[in-house]
Amino acid sequence: MYISRVSLLARLFLPRAICRIDTGGKKIAYLTFDDGPIPETTPYILDTLKKYGLKATFFCVGENVKKYPELYQRILAEGHFAGNHTFNHLKGWKTPLKRYIDNVDECAQYVSSDLFRPPYGKMTLSQYRTLKNRFQIVYWDVLPPDYDVNISAGDCLNIVKKKTRPGSVLVFHDNLKAKNKLPELLPGTLDFLILNSFEIQPITNNMGK
Ligand SMILES: [Zn+2]
After folding, report:
1. Which of 33, 55, 1 is nearest to 140 (CA)?
2. What is the pTM of this model?
3. Whole-angstrom Cα distance, residue 85 to residue 64?
4. Domains of the chain as residue ranges with CATH
5. How far is the CA of 161 from the centre of ligand 1 (A)?
6. Which of 24, 56, 93, 204 is 20 to 30 Å apart from 78, CA to CA?
7. Terminal-residue alpha carbon distance, the chain
8. How far is the CA of 93 from the centre of ligand 1 (A)?
9. Which helix (H) or strand (E) holds 137?
10. Rounded CA separation 199/209 (Å)
11. How many CA atoms lie within 13 A of 169 on its CB side?
């Protein structure tokens, strides 16, 4: 499956990237959201997290933060964490090194963080080598395909239920493709994790160092 392959590749070739966190078996799941902030989904996610009293990490696209600074401020004001996800959501494998790093730097003008997640999970070895000293690079091990319109929220939820283990890093999308699934998928995930005694945490800047 695509998702596992990315995670496996990351583990083999990008040794300092986080895929799953060693919690010593402790049931902790780490919650992350990619691609926002946008008015169509971010407020719903924030409202839901507030209702559950949870914090998460948002890997933000710089151009969205530039467009919606008040949403970005709300993320931080409500105690969540932000990460850099490039300015234009670039595909690393298709972008020359300098352009990629410049785009990360442009995002960094709007998102102050030493966490970085490459869009699509794809970055070249030279991009990785350049960024790994500046950032904690964060992948994931559980990614329900919430961006795929052919897959239902229920199927996504089943993937979360099947794949989440102690230390798992879960990723959901704070974007238009995932919008219709969020109202079922997000509370469904949180209920499942809570029912199964998982502590739910954000990824913070000092992990894996
Ligand atoms: Zn993304």
Report:
1. 33
2. 0.93
3. 11
4. 18-201 (3.20.20.370)
5. 22
6. 24
7. 29
8. 14
9. strand 136-137
10. 21
11. 26
Q: Is the pLDDT higher at 15 or at 3? A: 15
Token match 């352009």: residue?
Answer: 99
Point out the catalytic residue in the list 80, 141, 146, 173.
Answer: 173
Residue 132 has pLDDT above 50, yes or no: yes
Q: Output the six-digit token pair for 77.
A: 């004001």
162, 163, 168, 172: CA torsion to nearest 10: -90
Amino acid 8: pLDDT: 59
Kind and range of the H or E run holding 102: helix 97-108
Neighbours of ion ligand 1 (CB under 5 A): 34-35, 119
Contact 26, 166 (CB under 8 A): yes
CA of 89 to the centre of ligand 1 (A): 6
Cα 118 to ligand 1 centroid, rounded to whole Å:
7
Long-range contacts (CB closer than 8 Å, 24 or more residues apart) made by 67-73: 68/37, 68/38, 68/39, 68/42, 69/110, 71/36, 71/37, 71/38, 71/39, 71/42, 71/43, 72/37, 72/110, 72/111
Instruction: Confirm whether 174 is a catalytic residue.
Output: no
Asked if residue 2 has pLDDT above 50, the reply is no
Alpha-carbon torsion (144, 146, 148, 151), positive or negative: positive
Coil, helix or strand at residue 95: coil
34 an active-site residue?
A: yes
Q: Tokens standing for 144? A: 């329900």
- pLDDT tens column, 65-118: 999 999 999 999 999 999 999 999 999 999 999 999 999 999 999 999 999 999
